[in-house]
Design a protein that fits this description.
294 residues; alpha/beta; Rossmann fold; 2 domains; 6-stranded mixed beta sheet; 4-stranded antiparallel beta sheet; 10 strands; binds adenosine-5'-triphosphate; binds magnesium ion
């Protein structure tokens, strides 16, 4: 497996700017002109006993096939809630989420989430059983096919020697690789990742980013990735949506397809980080909050 193989051609230095429609998207047969995922005017709320918390306010974005689309924003701006909404676990109070033209009304095997936590794998199943289980449970494959497919994806994430190990015998990074193999093996329409590397040490985190990009080169899955790290957003994404602080609204979208791990430390990359940082932390007029809501 080649790590971080050829990416799209670099674009000129003024890297951080709003992206005109159609730019910053992967070229080639996988790219299509209609969005795969269409989020329109989505407001999300939590009702607690004391009050209603508005997590996001009228959020719009489109994700195209084979995009690596990143939601970047400060803690509490509603990134995880947005991901849960796309996964079908949290219905919007206004707006719509469409996948392939169909309104999302609940969870489905076409959307798989990889979380930050290392304990997302049932501990009583081996690595191979963990990866094979959803393939069987969703009725996608028979036992033999599911096992073969699981081994293939375990191999892709470099864990062939650990196929018969149990989660407690693995490091945090290895567990995240299993979660990634398990998600990709089901070939979801969109892979949803919520800060999947945030709990890893810096070196492992960088390796996981590298491996994710290498897997994307190989499989060309569609990725919706959440992070509050500006560097990670620029490296992992080809498009980055910036969210304002609580309640989250889309501030702007930038094109980041020209950056990869090799760009870290370069002048262009540092300038892009600085501009995103300034954009993220500049103040915004607060939206008119509905009465009784926070
Ligand atoms: N179960 C809940 N009940 C009530 N409010 C909630 C709940 N979960 C989240 N919130 C609120 O919704 C808002 C958005 O939360 P969310 O977890 O989506 O933010 P986030 O951007 O993912 O933050 P972080 O980067 O810290 O993970 C926050 O103000 C949070 O306090
Ligand atoms: Mg979160």
């Amino acid at each position: 497996m080649s790590l971080v193989a050829a990416r799209e051609a670099p674009i000129p230095a003024a890297a951080i700017r709003p992206v005109p429609e159609g730019q910053g998207r992967p070229a080639g047969p996988a790219a299509s002109s209609a969005p795969l995922l269409c989020v329109r005017g989505v407001s999300l709320e939590y009702c607690t006993r004391e009050r209603v918390v508005r997590a996001t306010h009228r959020v719009d974005f489109d994700v195209f096939e084979a995009d690596r689309f990143v939601l970047l924003g400060p803690s509490g701006c509603g990134k995880s809630t947005l991901l849960k909404a796309v996964a079908g676990f949290h219905p919007p109070v206004e707006g719509t989420i469409r996948l392939n033209g169909q309104t999302v009304r609940g969870p489905g095997p076409d959307r798989i989430v990889v979380f930050q936590e290392f304990d997302q794998l049932p501990p009583w199943k081996t690595v191979a059983q963990n990866v094979a289980f959803p393939l069987r449970a969703a009725g996608l494959f028979g036992r033999r096919e599911a096992q073969e497919r699981a081994r293939r994806y375990i191999d892709k994430v470099g864990l062939a020697r650990f196929a018969d190990s149990y989660p407690h015998q693995l490091s945090g990074g290895m567990k995240q690789r299993v979660a990634l193999a398990r998600a990709l093996a089901t070939q979801p329409k969109v892979l949803l990742m919520d800060e999947p590397f945030a709990a890893l040490d810096a070196l492992t985190r960088r390796r996981m980013q590298e491996e994710l990009l290498a897997l994307w080169e190989e499989v060309r899955f569609t990725l919706l990735f959440v992070t509050h790290s500006i560097e990670e957003a620029l490296v992992v994404g080809n498009r980055v949506a910036l969210l304002s602080p609580h309640p989250g609204r889309i501030r702007s979208e930038v094109n980041s397809h020209q950056f990869d791990l090799g760009s870290l430390g370069s002048r262009d990359f540092q300038a892009a980080v600085r501009r995103l940082h300034d954009r993220l932390f500049e103040s915004d007029p607060a939206p008119a909050a509905p009465t009784g809501r926070s």
